[in-house]
């Protein structure tokens, strides 16, 4: 796209930003006074001069150096609010450009299902192959309790209202009366935003996190997901009509909020109960609301419309004796369904959700969602038999799709715990039961032997009088709460038990033993196979664990007790891959390649052992934690790694960015399904016979990158001190983001620091180190002065989705980095020698990586392949500058001893504003 075309295409975005910025400015002037407003304007103008290289970066810093904190607070809030409104304007621009694209009749864009169907039609795979590959089809975004979402719900809601008003404003001309009325309403909402505190007074409780995660269902997911499932099923069955593809909905959601207790002491059995039953309440509440609407709308009269005998029986059993409805069989049938569902809700939850209209007449509860679907199917079949398919395709079809997708549980809540904790609990159980007095001292083969023996008997280890430690009581309480939730809401309620830091076979078997002790896993006997609705999922996180992951899995499957369990689950085995800790362990390129290599090894292990492998990608919002465009990431997987199913975590402010709006939610979810279908059914790797040489080359590059990263992070004396001084890591722990502590253990080690604060601290200081460091050294050293080697990498960049995605994500991160701002943060390090040594290494590597990126991609611009992001960063620069400069100034004051409440609040506000601006900060 030419520069003039970009200018024309982005003009409406600039207009929206100016309009919203002007309203914000007027609001500030009216309510904070002209002096504050004038300072904000002077800083803004100076920041624009910095962007145009008219003045030095120090100009803004000097303006802010002696700003009184009472003035600094509204200044910080002003730039934070502007960036929040800029996000809103950019979202509107994306919608606008999409409409223009469609109106021009251009081909559907990659990552849309329409584009995927065109690709499948161009090279249609064999129907039998499609049926096999999609036999266990599942695309599951999993919302996790790692919130870097800094917006309060109130701010979130106001922003949503402004978005809707701005959309409405586009439909009118500026001389129409509605236009002026909308401007006034927008001003009212901006004022509300300005008068609302941006940061929380207290840290989020886990109960709050549960509610935050669930709010997206009512906002978008309950409506959007069933629609996508229906669209995909219809499209695939139209292409392969004899295969009955996707008997289960392909798109189904999951959650970790309330089930992930790895390092989070706040997760208890009570929390698991709350998380699962609140989710059930959302599903039941939606169904009851939709049934009320159906009962009102399905007014067909038996005097005018023939009905099936099945519908007549359902209506007669409907507990509706009203004479006014004697000839309205559909209403009577729906009322009966409401009555049975009401009884089901009371049985599962103990009460009817407060805003639901139940029919409490003592009807028989449904045994499961299948029975509810059967009754809704009777209504559907009767309507279609009388020619009323148009009516059946509306609200009734949407409700059937929702029940099929969400069941009675809404979402699958995963349990997760660290393998070290499992070991402690199992050791205590074995000691109490007399199995072994010191399990922890046993070598691995002996551990496996003892665990396997226990997994072949139904005998529990504990009796009712067992006396256990607080840790064991708590851990067993969580698993028993999961059992109760499964009993109340059905087998999809808790689908997986994930083992963090899984390094051995015994780690898997210990989790299985806890499931058995809680009554979830039935080991079976000689006549009956084992049974467990909960799968055991190893999580391989560090680079070494990723390298050994396939070997660990194969060894586990060689244990007869574990193999029987997997066989009883249809030979399905899920494996989770950790993006965050592998990156913190070995750096960007080494972690990405370790993950790719692990997938290659796991695919081969699956082929040899006969399992149906499903990979669960533990990705974060930032590139340093596996973030980036999900569609591209899926296509970058190795051949055979997807096979119709994948799960991936959705974290932080990325969740609200993707799922707060129906249109955006649809596009993000369809991109996940589109990527999964393409990676499964088409050859997207593109390497052919060159695959093995490319893999060997990247083994070498990854090791070189790992060494470069380790020299800085793990081997340079004083690195942790530099990190703590030059970033707001201590203050990250104070920002009221979530219920989890910043470190797994109270140590001064990078390895024990959680990945989210690690990444967020580097993002705030604009270094973005986890998203690029070490890559430039590895690539430049390998290329040397050999143009043939450079062409080898350039060729791989053009042909190989994996390498192209690695380089694209790296460029996105580096474009948001700013070494001049980072230098200001480095000045916070008092040890001058340490400062020069480490920041010098960082700056040299950054420059090196920019050079080698340009050489390989053939473009001097980091974001040549993403002009929209380039324009976004350019627009944001003048508003990021004051926030970073003000944050450095306030950090300096705090560390000099000014621990006043206003200084701390100012720091947290700058962090909030920067996280909002960067959009994927943790």
Structural notes for this entry:
There is one protein chain. This protein is 63% helix and 5% strand. The chain is mostly helical and 922 residues long. It has a nine-stranded parallel sheet with strand order 3-2-1-9-8-7-6-5-4. Helix 18 (505-517) links the parallel strand 5 and strand 6 (535-540).
Layout of secondary structure:
Elements: H1 3-32, H2 34-51, H3 58-64, H4 69-103, H5 113-122, H6 127-133, E1 138-143, H7 153-169, H8 177-194, H9 206-239, E2 254-255, H10 269-297, H11 309-316, H12 329-349, H13 369-385, H14 389-406, E3 412-413, E4 415-418, H15 419-433, H16 444-454, H17 470-489, E5 496-500, H18 505-517, E6 535-540, H19 543-557, H20 560-568, E7 572-578, H21 579-586, H22 588-609, E8 612-618, H23 630-635, E9 645-650, H24 653-659, H25 662-681, H26 691-713, H27 719-726, H28 729-732, H29 755-764, H30 775-783, H31 787-799, H32 801-816, H33 819-826, H34 832-857, H35 867-895, H36 901-918
Parallel strand pairs: 1-2, 1-9, 2-3, 4-5, 5-6, 6-7, 7-8, 8-9
Helix pairs in contact: 1-2, 1-4, 1-8, 2-3, 2-4, 2-35, 4-7, 4-35, 4-36, 5-25, 7-8, 9-10, 9-14, 9-25, 10-12, 10-14, 10-17, 11-12, 12-13, 13-14, 15-18, 16-18, 18-19, 19-22, 21-22, 22-26, 26-30, 30-34, 31-32, 35-36
């Amino acid at each position: 796209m030419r520069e003039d075309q970009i200018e024309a295409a982005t003009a409406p975005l600039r207009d929206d930003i100016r309009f919203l910025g002007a309203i914000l400015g007027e609001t500030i002037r009216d309510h904070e006074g002209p002096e504050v407003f004038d300072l904000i304007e002077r800083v803004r103008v100076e920041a624009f001069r910095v962007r145009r290289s008219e003045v030095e970066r120090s100009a803004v810093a000097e303006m802010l150096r002696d700003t009184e904190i009472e003035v600094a607070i509204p200044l910080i809030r002003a730039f934070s609010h502007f960036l929040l409104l800029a996000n809103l304007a950019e979202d509107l621009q994306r919608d606008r450009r999409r409409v223009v694209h469609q109106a021009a009749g251009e081909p559907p864009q990659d990552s849309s299902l329409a584009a995927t169907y065109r690709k499948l039609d161009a090279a249609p795979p064999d129907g039998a192959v499609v049926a096999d590959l999609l036999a266990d089809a599942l695309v599951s975004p999993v919302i996790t309790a790692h919130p870097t979402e800094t917006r309060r719900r109130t701010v979130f809601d106001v922003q949503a209202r402004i978005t809707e008003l701005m959309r409405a404003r586009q439909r009118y001309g500026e001389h129409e009366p509605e236009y002026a009325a909308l401007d006034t309403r927008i001003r009212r909402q901006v004022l509300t935003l300005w008068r609302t505190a941006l940061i929380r007074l207290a840290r989020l409780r886990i109960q709050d996190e549960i509610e935050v995660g669930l709010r997206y269902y009512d906002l978008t997911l309950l409506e959007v997901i069933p629609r996508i499932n229906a669209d995909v099923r219809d499209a695939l069955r139209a292409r392969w009509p004899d295969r009955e593809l996707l008997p289960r909905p392909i798109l189904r959601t999951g959650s970790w909020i309330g089930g992930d207790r790895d390092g989070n002491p706040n997760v208890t059995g009570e929390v698991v109960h709350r998380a699962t039953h609140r989710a059930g309440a959302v599903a039941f509440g939606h169904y009851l609301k939709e049934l009320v609407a159906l009962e009102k709308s399905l007014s067909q009269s038996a005097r005018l419309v023939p009905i099936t005998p099945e519908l007549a029986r359902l209506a007669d059993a409907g507990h509706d004796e009203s004479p006014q409805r004697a000839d309205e069989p559909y209403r009577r049938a729906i009322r009966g369904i409401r009555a049975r569902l009401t009884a089901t809700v009371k049985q599962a939850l103990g009460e009817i959700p407060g805003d639901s209209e139940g029919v409490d007449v003592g009807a028989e509860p449904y045994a499961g969602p299948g029975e509810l679907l059967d009754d809704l199917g009777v209504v559907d079949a009767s309507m279609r038999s009388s020619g009323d398919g148009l009516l059946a395709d509306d609200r009734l079809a949407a409700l059937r799709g929702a029940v099929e997708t969400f069941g009675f549980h809404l979402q699958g809540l995963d349990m997760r715990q660290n393998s070290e904790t499992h070991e402690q609990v199992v050791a205590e159980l074995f000691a109490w039961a007399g199995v072994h007095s010191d399990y922890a001292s046993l070598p691995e083969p002996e551990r496996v032997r003892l665990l396997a023996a226990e997994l072949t008997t139904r005998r529990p280890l504990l009796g009712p009088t067992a006396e256990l430690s607080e840790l064991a009581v708590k851990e067993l309480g969580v698993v028993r709460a999961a059992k109760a939730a499964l009993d109340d809401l059905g087998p999809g309620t808790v689908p997986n038990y994930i083992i963090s830091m899984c390094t051995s076979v015994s780690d898997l078997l210990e989790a299985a033993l806890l499931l058995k002790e809680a009554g979830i896993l039935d080991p079976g006997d000689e006549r009956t196979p084992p049974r467990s609705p909960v799968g055991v999922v190893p999580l391989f996180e560090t680079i070494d664990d990723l390298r050994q992951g396939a070997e660990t899995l194969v060894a586990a499957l060689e244990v007869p007790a574990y193999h029987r369990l997997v066989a009883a689950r249809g030979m399905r085995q899920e494996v989770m891959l950790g993006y965050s800790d592998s990156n913190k362990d070995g750096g960007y390129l080494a972690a990405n390649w370790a993950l790719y290599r692990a997938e290659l090894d796991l695919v081969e292990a699956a082929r040899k052992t006969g399992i149906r492998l499903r990979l669960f990608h533990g990705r974060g919002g930032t590139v340093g934690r596996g973030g980036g465009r999900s569609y591209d990431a899926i296509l970058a997987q190795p051949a055979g790694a997807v096979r119709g199913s994948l799960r991936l975590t959705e974290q932080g402010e990325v969740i609200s960015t993707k799922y707060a709006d129906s249109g955006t939610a649809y596009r993000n979810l369809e991109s996940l399904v589109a990527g999964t279908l393409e990676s499964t059914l088409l050859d997207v790797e593109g390497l052919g016979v060159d695959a093995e040489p490319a893999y060997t080359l990247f083994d070498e590059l990854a090791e070189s990158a790992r060494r470069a990263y380790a020299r800085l992070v793990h081997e340079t004396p004083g690195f942790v001190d530099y990190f703590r001084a030059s970033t707001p890591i201590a203050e990250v722990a104070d920002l009221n983001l979530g219920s989890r502590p910043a470190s797994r253990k109270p140590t001064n080690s990078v390895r024990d620091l959680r990945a989210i604060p690690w990444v967020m601290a580097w993002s705030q200081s604009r270094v973005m180190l986890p998203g690029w460091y070490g890559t430039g050294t590895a690539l430049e050293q390998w290329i040397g002065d050999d143009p043939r080697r450079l062409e080898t990498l350039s060729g791989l960049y053009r042909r190989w989705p994996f390498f192209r995605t690695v380089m694209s994500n790296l460029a996105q991160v580096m474009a948001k980095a700013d070494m001049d701002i980072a230098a200001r943060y480095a000045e916070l390090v008092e040890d001058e020698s340490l400062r020069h040594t480490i920041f010098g290494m960082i700056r040299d590597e950054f420059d090196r990586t920019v050079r080698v990126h340009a050489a390989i991609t053939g473009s001097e611009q980091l974001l040549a392949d993403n002009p929209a992001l380039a324009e976004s960063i350019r627009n944001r620069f003048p508003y990021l500058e004051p926030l970073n400069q003000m944050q450095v100034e306030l950090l300096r004051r705090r560390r000099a001893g000014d621990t006043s409440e206003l200084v701390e609040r100012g720091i947290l506000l700058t962090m909030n504003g920067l996280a909002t601006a960067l959009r994927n900060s943790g």
